[in-house]
Amino acid sequence: MSARSAWRVVPRLKMTQFATLAMDEVPRLADDILREIRREYPHLPVVLNEAGEPMALVGIRRALEVFVQQIAHTEDRPRYHPEVFQEFGRGEGLHGRSLDSLQAIYRLGVRLAWRRLAEIGQLVEIPPPAMYELAEAGFEYLDGLVDQSVRGYAEAAARQAGERLRLQRKLMELLLAEHRTDRTAHPSPDRHPSTRPSGPQHVLEAIAERAARVSWPLPERVAVGVLLRPAREAVAPAVGPDVLLDMETEQPCMVVPEPDAAGRPELLRRAMTGWAGAIGPPVPLLDAAKSLRWAEAAVRLMERGLLPGGEVLFCAEHTEALVLLQPEELINDLARRTLAPLAECGPAHGRRLAETLLAWLETRGGAPEVAARLGVHPQTVRYRLRQIRELWGDEIDDPDRRFELELVLRAQRLRGGISGPRAEGAA
């Protein structure tokens, strides 16, 4: 309080009388404040300290004592005791309550305290200007208590969020691990327990235990997504609290529960605007690693330009590309053997024959149908089909050989090696 403070010109005797009476009143006042708080907020839990005393009562009493001592013995306005009220803020955060409720409790306490202090001031005849100044100091004191509680609340919230993310990553690690599901396998008695294969029920119980720690209801089916960051500092997509999201890796990963639920794909697309990546096919919970493998494969194809980029793809909508482009070495070897007759043709002519052959295999029709698909004249198709029969001979009528040809030609079309169907009448 300043040198011109109305409180500081109160005679020392009256100030001493006020401080003595107020300090004597502190224990009862603290009890009354806590009782009123409990009446207004009946669901507020009572946390006891080591001595079995309510921690809230200790805090209220300590705040009152510090305030009264400082107004009686210092020249400055009363200062709060930070540690106690930071701890209150941490407690609110850890118990899931809001800061609004904590501030309401503080305001209630200050209102009751001021009423009692005003009675004491009247009793010892403290001048009204000094009491007004004391009230102002009391509300400043309250602001300081709130600030410290907010700091404690923020610390608790950050710690809680960090712990949840750590537990969530542990859950995702277990979900995305390869689980042996061979029910006929029996562990050898001489193997260490940690190296024995775990049965599905054992794995499910472990997953359920970790899921419970982050309040994640176990779904029957999941889909796993792999994301490509649009920028290093990109904000995480707002996928919702039920989607497990790990942003700590170079390519963020997420586990989507019940991906077949109505409206889920649309919600995910909106939530991931600006992001790219792939979401694997829906699988049973214990097969999450399989969905992850397909999502990773799709992302690799996106990075090579073989699948559309700049968006989040659903693997279930690109099954043909994933099946035909994934086993690259096998498809290449099959293409080398089955398309060997085209080796004698020039590149451009060989590509036209390959496009015609694929259109014929897909339509199972005659020259008019193939011509409509390719956008060329039927007579051109007839000429090409005669060449195809000359190149492959009777093998072209073998169902297995036709299947192999269609397989490798579709793969080549996906890679851009040959063109797809054109609009009817195109040149």
Task: Estimate the helix proportion, in percent.
Answer: 55-70%
Q: Using DSSP, what is the number of strands?
A: 6
> N-to-C terminal Cα separation, in Å?
93 Å
Structural Rg:
38 Å
| Number of discrete helical segments | 14
Mean pLDDT across the residues is 82
Summarize the biggest pleated sheet.
6 strands, mixed
Q: Shape, please?
A: rod-shaped
Element order: H for helix, E for strand: HHHHHHEEEHEEHEHHHHHH
Structural class: mainly alpha
Poorly predicted residue ranges: 181-197, 423-427
Quaternary organisation = single chain
Tell me the β content.
Answer: 5-15%
Question: Can you give a write-up of this model?
Answer:
There is one protein chain. This protein is mainly alpha-helical. The protein is built from 14 helices and 6 strands. The C terminus is likely disordered.
Write the layout of secondary structure elements.
Blueprint: H1 12-40, H2 55-73, H3 82-94, H4 99-123, H5 128-175, H6 200-213, E1 221-228, E2 244-246, E3 253-257, H7 264-271, E4 276-279, E5 283-284, H8 288-303, E6 312-314, H9 319-325, H10 328-338, H11 347-363, H12 367-374, H13 378-392, H14 399-414
Parallel strand pairs: 4-6
Antiparallel strand pairs: 1-3, 1-4, 1-5, 2-3
Helix pairs in contact: 1-2, 1-4, 3-5, 4-5, 5-6, 10-14, 11-12, 11-13, 11-14, 12-13
Summarize this structure briefly:
With about 425 residues, the protein is mainly alpha-helical.
